[in-house]
Design a protein that fits this description.
Layout: H1 12-25, E1 28-31, E2 38-46, E3 52-61, H2 70-96
Antiparallel strand pairs: 1-2, 2-3
Length: 98
Amino acid sequence: MEKHTEYTITDIDKLREELKRVEALGYAVDEREYNKDVRCLAVPVRDNRGVVVASVGVTAPAVTFPKSQIPAVAEFAKEAARGIYRDTYQLSEKRLGA
């Protein structure tokens, strides 16, 4: 795995741990792993079968998106993903009479 910054995960065991954390929390964070000045967060958008079909992401300079704000931003992103699901799948089913 290519190292882009001093924060890049390059150890397979650490990557596995991070993936477990992502699954447990329901969101992923790029903790300045690709660009040392940028922090990113993403949540999945699932279809009515639970399959991930898209994502909602936030990318910002790390100085304006501090680590302490990750949980709050994650909740906003999760709400946006739920809204997309609702608007795309639940409303579509109602329109089709399902």
